[in-house]
Every structure is written in C-alpha cells, then in structure tokens.
Write a structure and sequence with these properties.
This protein is an alpha+beta fold. It folds into 2 domains: 153 residues, no CATH class; 94 residues, Trna Endonuclease, Chain: A, domain 1, CATH 3.40.1350. The strands form 3 sheets. Strands 2-5-6-7-8 form a 5-stranded mixed sheet, with helices on both faces. It has a 3-stranded mixed sheet with strand order 1-4-3. α1 packs across α2 and α4 runs parallel beside α8. The longest helix is centred in the N-terminal third of the chain and has 23 residues. The structure holds iron/sulfur cluster. Iron/sulfur cluster binds next to α2 and α12. It comes from Domibacillus antri.
Length: 311
C-alpha cells in the first residue's frame, strides 16, 4: 500500500497514548498531534521540532528498548535455528547498542536532527550536554543481571526446553483490533500456546520495577486473544517477567477483569475525543486548549519543555 500523507493523524488508542495523556494533556498534544508529519522532508519546522523532541530517549528507556530487542532476537534465533544465545553474546550486543546511543548523541547531532528516527539522542545529552555518569554506569551494570535472568526466566525456559509442546504466534509488529470503531494497538512481546497446559500464554518483559497497572495492560492483550482466536478467558495466562529481579508474575484473569479494562479504556477514549475538533478527520483543537499539567515537577524531565516553556 503506498504511503499516504494525511493532514491529521489517524485516531487510535494505545496504553502509551493513555499514559501520556495522564501525564500531561499538553504533552499529549505535542506527541500525538503537533509532531504529525514531522518526519517528512517538506514538513514545516514546528512539526519537525515537535517530532524530534518526541523521539528523544533517556538511559532507562533506551535500556528497556535494547533488552526488548535482544529478547526478541534471542527467541527468534532459537525458533529459526535452534540456537540459544549466550549471556556473554547478549551482554556484548547490549553494551554496544547502549554505547551507540551515547555516540549518536555526542557525535551525530546533525544527523539526528535530519533523521530523528534513525539516530538516537539521549535526553541528558540534548538538554545538559552530558550524561549522568552514575546512572549510565548503573544501567551498564544491569546488563549482566537482566540477560542472566532473561535466559533463566520461566518463559525462555519454556521455549527452549519444551519446544515441541509450544506453538508460537507470529510476532507481528503492529497488532491491532477495533473497539467501538476505534483502532486499538496491542503490542505483545511474546505470545505462545502451551499445548500441554492448553493455554495461551502472553508474556511481557519488564525491565523496571513492578507497577500497579502492569496487569491491566495484559488484560487488554488477553481481550485481543479472545477476539482474534475466539479463546475463552480461562484459556489465557498472562505473565510479567521482571528481568531485573528475576521474578515472574502469572495471572489468570476473569471476565470481570476484562470488563473493567474495557470500561477504563472507553473512558480514556472519551477524554481523548474532547481534544478533537473534527471526529472524522481527527483535526485537533488549538494547542492552547491542551492544558498543561499542574504538577510542574513533571516539566523538569519532559522532552517537550524546550517548546512548551518558551510559549
Ligand atoms: S513541559 Fe510540562 S506542561 Fe509542557 S508539555 Fe511538558 S510536562 Fe506538559
């Protein structure tokens, strides 16, 4: 399908969109509207600027992304070639990816300005000109821990020690479903059927600490499986693998959990729709009408402060 340039972005819902709106509606406006088309060469500077800031990352986020990419690679290599990556290989690749993010930020700022999706720019390097050394060292040290835990995790062990009783679903990058006419993005880390247990298993790798909404995020994924594969909720197991602590949490959801999650999602969509001027085109209201957060300490670490606080 040819790439279509739209004047306004398509409206869709995802957990990350919801979290952004909860953090600050103005930030939501920058990320989901002002930056639209900012990746196009011919876009105006305002959109390009907002898009660049949206693409800024930080050490914890870059670390999480690297661990996810390498977890996906480790699973793929096993499924395709029966090869189990070693801890040393994972650490080495992780270290070089972290280093690349640092070098991009330090030496390739011009390239990042032109192609912010292709190069990395770390928040501290952009706004302060240097990294927080202690934080960077801390995350470098975590590579050992997370990859050892990843290889020993229940999910990875399931895959590598019982491959015959596992059936894998294709890891499509953009899974989505439609609820009440709204496109809902569902990005799962790993999904398989445990044929012995007769269950679908949805796995989410977590590189941070346990959080309250980790479970409700997985309820959305469970709903997707119910819709797409006509599975019953009792046939679905959801699992968070906390690779920093080595702990996993496995849940069996009930119909009520799904109902609750759907209700929350619909409320969230309802709030988002207030920022639309036009329902069909998804043209947004003026940026001034996206209120700034009352919690001004959030501005200190916000990617968009350069634009927002200057206005
Ligand atoms: S700088 Fe503050 S008010 Fe502005 S978008 Fe960021 S968090 Fe919101």
């Amino acid at each position: 399908m040819p790439f279509e340039v739209r004047e306004f972005p398509e409206f869709s819902w995802s957990f990350s969109r919801h979290k952004t709106l909860l953090t600050c509606a103005r930030k939501y406006g920058y990320e989901y509207y002002a930056s639209h088309n900012g990746w196009l060469y011919e876009a105006d500077e305002t959109a390009k600027h907002a898009y660049r800031l949206k693409k800024l990352t930080n050490v914890p986020l870059a670390f999480g992304q690297i661990v996810h990419e390498l977890a996906e690679k480790a699973v793929r290599l096993f499924l395709k070639h029966g090869y189990v990556m070693t801890e040393a290989e994972l650490i080495e690749e992780g270290r070089s990816m972290l280093n690349r993010a640092y070098l991009d930020s330090r030496d390739r700022k011009q390239l990042w300005m032109q192609k912010p999706a292709r190069y990395k720019m770390l928040y501290d390097m952009y706004y302060k000109g240097e990294l927080n050394r202690l934080e960077a060292e801390d995350y470098r040290g975590r590579l050992h821990v997370v990859f050892a835990n990843l290889l020993n995790s229940r999910s990875f062990q399931d895959i590598t020690t019982r491959p015959l009783s596992m059936q894998f679903q294709q890891a499509e990058e953009f899974r989505f479903m439609t609820v009440d006419g709204v496109k809902i993005f569902v990005v799962m880390d790993l999904l398989y059927r445990d044929l012995d247990a007769g269950k679908w298993v949805i796995v989410d790798w977590k590189t941070g600490k346990e959080a309250e909404n980790d479970r409700s995020q997985l309820a959305l994924y469970a709903y997707y499986i119910m819709q797409k594969y006509k599975a019953r909720v009792e046939e679905i197991e959801i699992r968070n693998e906390y690779v920093l602590s080595g702990v996993n949490r496995t849940y069996q959801l009930m119909e009520e959990d799904i109902g609750l999650m759907l209700e929350k999602m619909k409320q969230s969509i309802h709030i988002m729709l207030r920022y639309q001027l036009d329902m069909i085109s998804n043209e947004p209201v003026e940026m001034d009408e996206f209120p700034r957060t009352e919690y001004r300490q959030r501005c200190e670490t916000c990617n968009h402060k350069e634009i927002c606080l200057a206005q």
